[in-house]
Amino acid sequence: VQLQASGGGLVQSGGSLRLSCAASGSIFRVNDMGWYRQAPGKQRELVATIDRFGATNYAESVTGRFTISRDDAKLTVYLQMNSLKPEDTAVYYCSQSVVEANTKVTHPIDYWGQGTLVTVSS
């Protein structure tokens, strides 16, 4: 299983970006999907998660500005980021909790994307 993240870039304060993260491989089902970020000199932190029933959870710092969504047919999770602030600058990582196909392993395994850099200028 591999995750491929895309959509990062440089944007001015107040602007918007949309991140995508697509999974590929032998996948039976994806449970939770999420986005995390790590700013320079800081620990990785949760941004948003969405479970397979569509229930979402957001960090307080992004609530009302970011929206997480998923397309299970495409095995893809999205993060729409609006009203971006300089403090949102970070490497954003996606994660998907995957139940693999064609295996005796029935519990989900967490996979991570390679990270995509978001830079917000003031």
Short characterization:
The protein has 122 residues and is mainly β.
Structural account:
This protein is mostly beta strands and 122 residues long. 0% of the residues lie in helices and 58% in strands. Strands 2, 4, 5, 6, 9, 10 and 11 form a 7-stranded mixed β-sheet that branches. It has a 4-stranded antiparallel β-sheet with strand order 1-3-8-7, with no helix packed on it. It is elongated and about 50 Å long. The model has no long low-confidence stretch (mean pLDDT 96).
Structural descriptors:
elongated; single chain; mainly beta; seven-stranded mixed beta sheet; 11 strands; 122 residues; four-stranded antiparallel beta sheet
Helix content: under 10%
Per DSSP, the total helix count is: 0
Low-confidence stretches: none
Structural class: mainly beta
Radius of gyration (CA) equals: 14 Å
Q: What is the total tally of β strands?
A: 11
Largest sheet, if any?
7 strands, mixed
Task: Present the secondary structure layout.
Elements (H helix, E strand, L loop, with lengths): L1 E5 L2 E4 L4 E8 L2 E12 L6 E6 L5 E3 L7 E6 L4 E6 L8 E11 L8 E4 L3 E6 L1
Parallel strand pairs: 2-11
Antiparallel strand pairs: 1-3, 3-8, 4-5, 4-9, 5-6, 7-8, 9-10, 9-11
